[in-house]
Amino acid sequence: FSICNEKIKFILSIETFFEVSYTTSDIDELNKEFFLADRGSNNIKVINKNGEIIRTVGKMGQGPAEFGVGSPNLILISGEKIFVPDTMGLRLQILNTNGTLLKQYRLVSDIPVFPILRLYTTERDNLIGIYGQVLKGLTPQGPSIFHKFITFDIENRNIKEVYSTPETIINTKAIDVFSGYVFPVINKNLVFYAHKDDYKIEIFSLEGKRLSSIQRNAKSLSLSEAVKNYLEENYELAQIKAQGINFTYPKNLPIIRALTTLNNLLIVWTWKSWLENNFEKKDNKFYVDVFNINGDYMGEGIANFNPEEVIKIKGERAYLLCREGEKKFAKIGKVSIAF
Questions:
Q1: How far is it, in rounded angstroms, from Cα 146 to Cα 166?
Q2: Which of 41, 44, 19, 25 is nearest to 33 (CA)?
Q3: Are 257 and 269 in contact (CB under 8 A)?
Q4: pLDDT in tens, 57-80
Q5: Cys-Cys link to 218, which of 103, 174, 199, 211 (CB 3.0-4.6 A)?
Q6: In angstroms, rounded to a whole number, what is the distance separating the alpha carbons of residues 245 and 239?
Q7: Can you say how many angstroms the Cα of residue 85 is from the centroid of all Cα atoms in its chain?
Q8: Do residues 158 and 130 touch, judged by C-beta distance below 8 A?
Q9: pTM for the structure as a whole
């Protein structure tokens, strides 16, 4: 790839589209069957290409292939094994495709994070990536936490820390709408960690060596009342507000909104792009910055899908969960690149 004046186009051709329960939060695929983590039903739904439920795996409970409240919220299929956290059960379960428990590991003791926020495949046998939260301590304002990315060898239980984020305090009295995080991504056994309040992306090896970083000048944009109102109309935030919970806002919008990766490219979607194109101009395309995996800027890109809705990409195949009001849909298809 080389820098060019024309925008790099990322085109999602949807092959499968079906409605899912609103509590579905992750999706993966094996042998043309889709595995959905449904935290509301405490099970994994196995779906065919028509959106029909073939079978379910798991139920509420503490036994093998059972899940506590709010789980499973993640699922990863690697080497024909299903990796699925049980957050309330403080464990990561590894199942076969029929739902039989093969192994389980305890969170905090075996795997030093709680909860697990995202799981990743790598190009190495028996090695997965885990992004999770760590409780540092308690303060009068709320818990002090940080995030950690680790690799975990499921055969020998070897753990390697790739990076940790700075500590932050979660205010339990009022929710900061922008207190979330930009999920890291993996490409070619490289881990990309974005600082959402600055245009800085650090690149690490799976062994935890910091290799390089991407830094660009980016101006912070003020947060308008119109944007605040729009965000609070979001179905999930509206549900929280209905419970009497208050929101707080920073003065300015964050810089980076989402990362995703395809082939040898890193795709960066910014809040500035969303504000100027999607919010103000009502454009239904998504304008992104494109880098190669070494961190070199390749040019501007344009996608026909929302980068923030991408749950995972395997090869050229993308898995998205899309919210539309009180409904949620799964979209699966191939992403092609055009110049």
A1: 6
A2: 44
A3: yes
A4: 999 999 999 999 999 999 999 988
A5: 199
A6: 10
A7: 15
A8: no
A9: 0.94
